[in-house]
């Protein structure tokens, strides 16, 4: 007989109120932390990260675990969470201390906050059972019940949030038809409303799911029935893939971009589905004998999947070195190897009861996952130290060419260690001996986020004082027989809002200058064309009017309309000439009329 889920119907009224109140407070304080003045305590660099972690974890742990406010186990649990957050956040803060852009910060902090969410989700069942059972050591059936109910609670709460905002969006769109925009500003431009209402919805979702224990149990049973039907299909796919692989060879995996994620997806799905079905098969065999043998066979080959994922990621590390993503992926694969091997052993040791040792295995490995997540955010397993040290060692050992060194990784995804590595490269005579490589390094050091095309030239000056107008002049290509424009032309080029000079500074693009007399007055104008593969080609015409250069014309067209390689070659060779328009403008009396001829052209 399955153990009953401990009912929360006896949850005191005050505790129900505090679940919603604490979640609203979470939303409000999150709003304050993101929108208060830069001089406030919350936005100090030394405290902001702590606020982010604390506001993410403590209110949710409180809402999921509270039974009575006076319960000392509740506050002990929160104290344990507080201690873990302070320890891990201190190390993460050290990794981002002194970084000068948002992407560097987010490249370290976002993975940390995501790991905190996973850590809390795995640890919650133990925190909940400690309050309800007054001890840590409980049966796996109890742990599983809480894991499953918590997962359903998260899903239903997210669904509630999506539906609520969908209704508000419908309201806004309806009133827009009446030319009333008040509700758009109230609902979607008011950050205080957005944060607090999301906190309220989270509180309502958690409180409702905790009270509706019979409904949650019914949903869990429905989920078990559905997964019970899908597990044999998943097992069949796992078996036919592993039996096909020897005929294809491992080279098929090594040539793929990154098969580790797909292999891990199969492992995670099989482990999750097996655990869900396992709850319905403790006393009675869940499948007929042939189907059960197929499921068991898929669990026996799970170590092969984990081993192949380990092999695939090892190839990537050997070719390109460690990155934070690969370190995290490697940790996930290591845990999957332990789970896979343990589940395979459970199959071989099961006689009368299907997968009898599974509960004991999960009771050991799930806390192991919690410990690994904590260690990954400490100096013992630091993805950013491992990644930066490996990338720089590969460069110094000439395992990677200087031109192929991943500067974007060092700049945006590894915190202050990556920033220090870039400064080392900037002082490395061998690295900056190549002018183009030095310019690429200077550009990446000037960029403030990984999606940024490039920073303005004034920002580049902050990195190195020599990055002045000469830098732009070196990047733009003068066509054959084109004289270098005067200083006034270069000045207007940088300040002209119609021309994005930053595009010309990218290594993947080219900008070419041609001189030609477009109005037959004996004075040359300049044609500046920007070519980016796969994007629009743009050309701008600059003419001197009086003592000032002005952008007087432009053209845009997609690359599919021309042979891009021939177009670029002709521009470089100066093979550009004027062409008379066959269809002229008109003049009505003394009033000029410009006529466009799209059909004729």
Automatic annotation (TrEMBL):
It comes from the Bacteria. Keywords: Membrane, Transmembrane, Transmembrane helix. The keyword 4Fe-4S does not apply. The chain crosses the membrane at residues 14-33, 48-67, 74-94, 109-127, 147-172, 192-209, 230-250, 256-278, 290-315, 327-348, 360-381. This is DUF4153 domain-containing protein.
């Amino acid at each position: 007989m399955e153990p009953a889920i401990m009912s929360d119907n006896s949850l005191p009224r005050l505790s129900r109120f505090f679940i919603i109140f604490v979640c609203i407070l979470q939303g409000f304080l999150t709003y304050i932390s993101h929108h208060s003045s830069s001089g406030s305590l919350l936005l100090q660099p030394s405290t902001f990260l702590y606020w982010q972690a604390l506001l993410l974890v403590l209110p949710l742990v409180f809402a999921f675990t509270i039974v009575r406010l006076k319960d000392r186990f509740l506050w002990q649990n929160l104290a344990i969470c507080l201690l873990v957050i302070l320890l891990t956040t201190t190390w993460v803060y050290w990794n981002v201390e002194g970084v000068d852009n948002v992407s560097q910060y987010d490249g370290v902090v976002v993975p940390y906050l995501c790991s905190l969410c996973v850590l809390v989700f795995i640890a919650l069942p133990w925190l909940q059972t400690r309050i309800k059972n007054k001890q840590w050591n409980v049966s796996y059936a109890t742990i599983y019940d809480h894991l499953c109910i918590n997962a359903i609670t998260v899903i239903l709460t997210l669904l509630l949030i999506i539906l609520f905002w969908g209704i508000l969006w419908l309201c806004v769109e309806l009133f827009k038809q009446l030319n009333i925009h008040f509700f758009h500003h109230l609902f979607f431009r008011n950050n205080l409303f957005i944060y607090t209402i999301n906190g309220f919805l989270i509180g309502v979702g958690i409180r409702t799911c905790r009270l509706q224990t019979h409904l949650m149990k019914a949903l869990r049973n429905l989920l078990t029935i559905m997964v019970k039907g899908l597990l044999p299909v998943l097992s069949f796919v796992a078996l036919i893939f592993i039996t096909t692989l020897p005929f294809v060879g491992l080279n098929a995996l090594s040539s793929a971009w990154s098969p580790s994620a797909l292999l891990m997806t199969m492992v995670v799905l099989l482990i999750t589905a097996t655990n869900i079905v396992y709850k319905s098969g403790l006393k009675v065999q869940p499948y007929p004998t042939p189907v059960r043998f197929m499921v068991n066979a898929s669990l026996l080959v799970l170590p092969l999947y984990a081993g192949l994922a380990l092999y695939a990621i090892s190839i990537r590390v050997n070719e390109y070195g460690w990155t934070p993503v690969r370190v995290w992926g490697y940790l996930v694969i290591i845990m999957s190897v332990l789970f896979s091997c343990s589940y395979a052993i459970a199959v071989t040791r099961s006689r009368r009861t299907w997968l009898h040792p599974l509960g004991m295995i999960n009771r050991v490995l799930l806390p192991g996952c919690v410990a690994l997540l904590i260690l990954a955010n400490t100096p013992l397993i630091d993805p950013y130290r491992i990644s930066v040290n490996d990338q720089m060692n590969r460069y110094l050992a000439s395992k990677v060419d200087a031109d192929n060194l991943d500067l974007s990784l060092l700049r945006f995804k590894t915190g202050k260690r990556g920033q220090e590595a870039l400064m080392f490269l900037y002082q490395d005579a061998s690295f900056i001996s190549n002018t183009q490589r030095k310019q690429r390094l200077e550009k990446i050091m000037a960029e403030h986020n990984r999606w940024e095309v490039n920073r303005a030239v004034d920002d580049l000056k902050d990195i190195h004082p020599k990055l002045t107008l000469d830098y732009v002049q070196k990047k733009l290509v003068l066509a054959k027989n084109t004289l270098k424009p005067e200083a006034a032309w270069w000045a207007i080029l940088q300040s002209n809002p119609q021309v994005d000079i930053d595009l010309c500074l990218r290594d993947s693009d080219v900008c070419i200058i041609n001189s030609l007399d477009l109005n037959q007055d004996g004075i040359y104008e300049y044609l500046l064309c920007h070519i980016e593969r796969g994007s629009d080609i743009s050309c701008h015409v600059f003419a001197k009017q009086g003592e000032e250069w002005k952008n007087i014309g432009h053209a845009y067209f997609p690359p599919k309309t021309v042979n891009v390689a021939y177009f670029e070659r002709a521009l470089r060779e100066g093979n550009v000439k004027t062409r008379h328009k066959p269809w002229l403008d008109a003049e009505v009396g003394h009033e000029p009329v410009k006529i466009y001829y799209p059909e004729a052209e």
